[in-house]
């Protein structure tokens, strides 16, 4: 039986990494391998490059990070699985995908959870955020910091002006049950597809649209296919920088401190360049002929209210939601 090219490439990468391991020493330098699915122009990739430079400076050259972008080592979920066996050292993943490994993170998928960006950062950088970073540690995935991923909105090959326009449309979502439920509540047909396969899926009509932030929509060239972008800003799912606990435990206390500090400094850097990337993306997609609309968010909130009722049936989730809402 002929092995599909994608499957072959993934397992070839896996075998290579098993030989090299997620962290190796060379000439007294510890090299940590980081794989992710973003384009090198993306603000989060630039932040991780910033982290790698800072780690090398802090450690006096005794630690470094090799970064493999553009899904070279697999999808977000595949990279997480490589972390779990220690074949890859680090990755960046949306908390929407990570909820499959840490159910507590489902809370970030609730639409309109945050009042504004200040509220979001106060949660992520406070006690609640720090606790949630460690929620996946029991599955060998330790969170180091959150990266700002802005707000997610819908885009499509069909006109979008309000929630009713989503009815019947096939909308790509992450492998996240929360995202699936959200699209269902809005009347759409949720279709989980890997980010790397989405452009082709849009071209071929496998899906009608998707939902993501402005920089990702622009840098993925999805605006070439989807000429309608509706700024509903339904969720503000942060990205999370993850290290394999297998690799983390191989570092001494000082090395762990350097890595954590470099990660947190990169998150501050990423916040600064994210806003610029959003503005640039908005200008460019308008130039490319994308029709950008700004719907009444109140209508969206009403349609997704049942999600809050369902979440609050779980006492732990209810307490988390209320704690987040109480943050000033």
Q: How many beta strands in the DSSP annotation?
A: 12
Estimate the mean pLDDT confidence. Answer: 92
Helix share, percent:
40-55%
Termini Cα gap: 59 Å
Query: What is the alpha-carbon Rg in Å?
Result: 20 Å
Order of helices and strands: HEEHEHEHHHEEEHEHEHEEHHEHH
| Number of alpha- plus pi-helical segments | 13
Provide structural commentary.
Helix content is 45%, strand content 19%. It contains 13 helices and 12 strands. It has helices at 5-20, 43-58, 76-84, 95-98, 117-124, 127-133, 177-185, 198-203, 214-219, 245-248, 253-287, 297-311, 315-326; strands at 23-26, 29-35, 63-68, 90-94, 141-147, 152-156, 170-173, 189-192, 209-212, 228-235, 239-244, 291-293. Helix 2 (43-58) runs antiparallel to helix 11. The longest helix is centred in the C-terminal third of the chain and has 35 residues, at 253-287.
Question: How would you summarize this macromolecular structure in one to three sentences?
Answer:
With 328 residues, this protein is of the alpha/beta class.
Which properties best describe this structure?
single chain, 328 residues, alpha/beta, four-stranded mixed beta sheet, 19% strand
What's the layout of helices and strands?
Blueprint: H1 5-20, E1 23-26, E2 29-35, H2 43-58, E3 63-68, H3 76-84, E4 90-94, H4 95-98, H5 117-124, H6 127-133, E5 141-147, E6 152-156, E7 170-173, H7 177-185, E8 189-192, H8 198-203, E9 209-212, H9 214-219, E10 228-235, E11 239-244, H10 245-248, H11 253-287, E12 291-293, H12 297-311, H13 315-326
Parallel strand pairs: 2-3, 2-4, 7-8, 10-12
Antiparallel strand pairs: 1-2, 4-11, 5-11, 6-9, 6-10
Helix pairs in contact: 2-11
